Amino acid sequence: MDCALAEKYKNLTHEKEICKKLSLSYYSIQIKYKNLFESENCEKECYRFIEQHFNCGKKMTAISDILGTNEDIKTLSESIRSVHMVSLYLLGYSLYQCFEDDLNKYFMQYIGKSDRGEEYDFRYTWFLTALFHDITSCKEVITKHNEIEGKQSIENVIKSEKNIYDYKLQSGKKFIPKFPKDFVLRYLKEREEKDRVDHGIVAGYNFFNSMCTIFEQKLGEEEIIVEKTDKERMLMWDKTYMDHFVFIADAIISHNIWFDEKTEKMVGKWAYEENPLNFILCLLDTIEPIKRFCEDKRSTLKYNEVLENISVIKDDERKIKISWNDVIRNCELEKWERWKDNIKKLDEWMKIDVEEGSDFLILRW
């Protein structure tokens, strides 16, 4: 088998990183594999890892606005979803060379360079996307216990003044989302009728509202502010970053919308060239294995065992090879088949080619 995810997660480096002897995330946050995936409290360690990124960037309000109570935080920090989000982030980080240049070119069409001429860093976009996309999964099911809160979160979306659908980019161009506003709100209401809060839509709306509010309060009338933090690190607040946030919010909002229950048809095939960040999130969210193999207490495999027995590597330009060994198949046959089938069916709703071998899948787009 090619390099296992466990080995990749332990040895992640980035070409823009000054220190390459440590596995570092954005803000030079250390990626401590054993803590995240082998400790007794993996879920809490992963939640701390998520918090650390938003705290370091002084964006923690985005999480506290949506996880309004200690009970919410407790639920998420004890949930597999926190581990899934971290694994998804590290999976994307390990494959950044597949996407970074394409995303940079795409964003340059709409956002351009900041006044300081800083180069684009995939890790910034990706940590905000991956570590937030399932943040409201702890509130997804509407019950008698949380009915008022669940319906209020939906109402907040509907009444939100700051939203991606009314947003104009700094260039003056109007932002064009993956799905129109009416369709998204209809989809949200249809989910509510089934006692579900679509966690992607609610998270994406809240992300955009919170991030824009944070930056507006910090910047005031200024275009750019460079702030020195407690750890002698420089933190930049740039108005053009709000353009960045609208693309991230759109990816989060749309990442669960692939089937229209009203028409009982797929919503159309997603194209990499048209919405690359949305495409990447849905692609890797489907591939990320922890969510599938460890989703219930009956799972026989631990988090690290899943990552040690699955490989996901860049095989060529716009080509990923996913392979596994017999441990995965023999221990969790039913979950392995479901995970593999979900990946194989990506070509039903994404413009992607899937090739199957005896112990691997190859994806081309």
Describe this structure in words.
The protein has 365 residues and is of the alpha+beta class. The chain is 49% helix and 10% strand. The strands form three sheets. Strands 5-6-8-7 form a four-stranded antiparallel beta sheet. A two-stranded antiparallel sheet has the order 1-2. The radius of gyration is 20 Å and the shape is globular.
Descriptive key words:
alpha+beta, 365 residues, 8 strands, 17 helices
Could you state the order of secondary-structure elements as H and E? HHHHHHHHHHHEEHEEHHHEEHHEE
Largest sheet: 4 strands, antiparallel
Q: What's the number of extended β-strand segments?
A: 8
Instruction: Tell me what portion of residues adopts beta-strand conformation.
Output: 5-15%
Shape: globular
Question: How far is the first residue's CA from the last residue's CA?
Answer: 23 Å
Rg, nearest Å: 20 Å
Arithmetic mean of pLDDT: 87
The number of distinct helices, counting runs of at least 4 residues, comes to: 17
What structural category arises from helix and sheet content? Answer: alpha+beta
The stretches of 5 or more residues where confidence is low (pLDDT under 50) are none
- Helix content, binned percent: 40-55%
Strand order of the largest sheet: 5-6-8-7
